């Protein structure tokens, strides 16, 4: 099968969070299974060019219609760790992708509406006719809309799978989006069964467009698929998902075992396996040395993630102090885009600066994240909501016991050592709490830290049980191929 992924991220070259990991990992798995996969991405000025091999111009004069005229683009092509990627570079005073950031601009909706249009124009002009186009999140929600409304006759019978990684960000716009992209016709698109937002009658909703126009819609775990339909976590799209329930499913993400694997990880100094954990202890020492933490007989707890309301920042904050209170060490690696949250953690960093048992690293650091997964004993994921969550799955692979809140994909991947009712004790792999108050988090951390101190052999058993879980792309890769096959033959 010939599959084209259109996305705003692909790890490690463009990664703001889990979306990048998924786009890369899924593409690799699909190729291993014998399919042809190509990726179309924006050419951001700030992406990691050191991860692209053989970058060259592949298509020089792509003119993308935009408002009444057209924007001249160059398309570059190169390999990102073996995946063939096309990067679109527009030349216009808008400077869409030369802003030193991936997201966070006032005109993000126009930047990605343009990217979606350019991706389709590139497919059409370069005579690429994939069997399936796979789009991700709000940034590419307009792809199926434009494909069906404007490109169908030139392009043929492409099928679209649309994956939602985060319902909170849906992409909104007004009539300017329609005029710019050539969709025009506001009275048509401003209908509730097309793009009109379910709650703001003056807005078009990109993600809703993606749901309405795609042949299959997925989110990134089965439990989150349920939450999105039946709880406020669908951020107003529950009704739309209900209408299109026949094409909506949850497919649990995987992690790429070529990249996230303590046996071969290129960023950690000591490799280790489930059978021989000596290397993990050495990585803990290396991590302490690197972050200037003292080397004492204490458990080390980590948090890695975007510092965003979604991630339960009030509980992240509490976890730091509770770990210290319970004689554990804490390492945080996180970046905040929201100024208030950033200021808060900057302040905490200053307050805790001289404490030899805690380190807060504020920023994005891929290499350091690997060492933290490898060196920590436990990882906390106290999210308010979590469509899938990759950090707990990576933690499990690295023998780092997850302590998670029971929401979204965390429910599908972590099974409480003491209380899980579905899994046998020898199949359980972490700790789960449910409420959002500090006491709930404390109860789970307490049990984990208690086990580490009082029953080290039991803790070790829990570590190896977690490591034996296979959350690779093997199963989800198969699931996505089944979805592609189904929509191809409909
Ligand atoms: N400061 C930092 N430095 C280095 N690395 C960092 C980092 N902050 C985060 N990362 C890395 O980025 C990834 C984050 O994964 P998450 O599952 O938390 O994704 P996120 O919430 O961004 O995305 C959304 O999409 C993903 C993918 O579908 C869903 O799993 C998730 O629930 C949903 O919210 C991990 O690989 C992590 O190691």
From TrEMBL:
Q: What is its EC number?
A: 2.4.1.21
What keywords is this UniProt entry annotated with?
Glycogen biosynthesis, Glycosyltransferase, Transferase
Report whether Disulfide bond shows up as a keyword of the record: no
Signal peptide span: none
What the protein does?
Synthesizes alpha-1,4-glucan chains using ADP-glucose.
Question: Which stretches make up the Starch synthase catalytic domain?
Answer: 3-242
**Which GO terms fall under biological process for this protein?**
glycogen biosynthetic process
Q: Does the keyword Glycosyltransferase apply?
A: yes
The protein's enzyme class: transferase
Catalysed reactions, as listed in the record:
[(1->4)-alpha-D-glucosyl](n) + ADP-alpha-D-glucose = [(1->4)-alpha-D-glucosyl](n+1) + ADP + H(+)
Name all Glycosyl transferase family domain ranges: 294-449
Which residues are ADP-alpha-D-glucose-binding? Answer: 15
Q: Tell me which family the UniProt entry assigns to this protein.
A: Belongs to the glycosyltransferase 1 family. Bacterial/plant glycogen synthase subfamily.
Q: What is this protein called?
A: Glycogen synthase
Quick one: which pathway? Glycan biosynthesis; glycogen biosynthesis
Organism, as annotated: Allocoleopsis franciscana PCC 7113
In the UniProt record, the gene name given for this protein reads: glgA
| Listed GO MF terms | alpha-1,4-glucan glucosyltransferase (ADP-glucose donor) activity; alpha-1,4-glucan glucosyltransferase (UDP-glucose donor) activity
């Amino acid at each position: 099968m010939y599959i084209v992924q259109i996305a705003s991220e692909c790890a490690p070259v463009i990664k703001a969070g889990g979306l990048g990991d998924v786009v890369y990992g899924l593409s690799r798995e699909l190729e291993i299974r014998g399919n042809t996969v190509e990726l179309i991405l924006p050419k951001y000025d700030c992406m990691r060019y050191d991860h692209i091999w053989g970058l060259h111009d592949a298509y020089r004069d792509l003119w993308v219609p935009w408002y009444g005229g057209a924007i001249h683009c160059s398309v570059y092509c190169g390999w990102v760790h073996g995946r063939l990627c096309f990067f679109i570079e527009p030349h216009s005073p808008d400077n869409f992708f030369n802003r030193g950031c991936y997201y966070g601009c006032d005109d993000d909706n126009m930047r990605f509406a343009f990217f979606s249009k350019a991706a389709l124009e590139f497919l059409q002009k370069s005579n690429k006719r994939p069997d399936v186009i796979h789009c991700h999140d709000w940034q590419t929600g307009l792809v199926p809309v434009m494909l069906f409304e404007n490109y169908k006759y030139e392009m043929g019978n492409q099928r679209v799978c649309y994956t939602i990684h985060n319902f909170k960000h849906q992409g909104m716009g007004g009539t300017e989006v329609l005029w710019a992209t050539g969709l025009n016709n506001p009275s048509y698109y401003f209908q509730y069964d097309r793009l009109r937002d379910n709650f703001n009658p003056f807005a078009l909703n990109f993600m809703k467009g993606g749901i309405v126009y795609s042949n299959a819609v997925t989110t990134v775990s089965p439990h989150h698929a349920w939450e999105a339909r039946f709880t406020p976590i669908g951020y107003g799209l529950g009704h739309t998902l209900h209408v299109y329930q026949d094409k909506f499913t949850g497919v649990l993400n995987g992690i790429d075992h070529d990249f996230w694997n303590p046996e071969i990880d290129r960023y950690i100094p000591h490799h280790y396996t489930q059978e021989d954990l000596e290397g993990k202890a050495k990585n803990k020492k290396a991590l302490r040395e690197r972050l200037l933490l003292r080397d004492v007989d204490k458990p080390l707890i980590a948090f890695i993630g975007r510092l965003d309301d979604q991630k339960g920042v009030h509980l992240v904050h509490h976890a730091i102090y509770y770990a210290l209170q319970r004689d554990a060490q804490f390492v945080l690696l996180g970046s905040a885009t929201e100024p208030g949250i950033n200021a808060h953690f900057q302040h905490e960093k200053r307050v805790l600066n001289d404490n030899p048992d805690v380190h807060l690293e504020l920023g994005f650091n891929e290499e350091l994240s690997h060492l933290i997964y490898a060196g920590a004993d436990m990882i906390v994921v106290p999210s308010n909501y979590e469509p899938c969550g990759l950090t707990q799955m990576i933690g499990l692979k690295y023998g780092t016991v997850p302590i998670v809140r029971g929401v979204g994909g965390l429910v599908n991947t972590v099974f409480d050592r003491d209380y899980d009712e579905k899994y046998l004790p020898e199949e359980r792999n972490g700790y789960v709490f449910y409420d959002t108050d500090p006491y709930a988090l404390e109860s789970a951390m307490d049990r984990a830290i208690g086990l580490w101190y009082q029953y080290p052999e039991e803790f070790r058993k829990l570590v190896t049980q977690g490591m034996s879980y296979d959350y690779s792309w093997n199963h989800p890769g198969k699931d996505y191929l089944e979805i592609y096959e189904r929509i191809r033959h409909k």
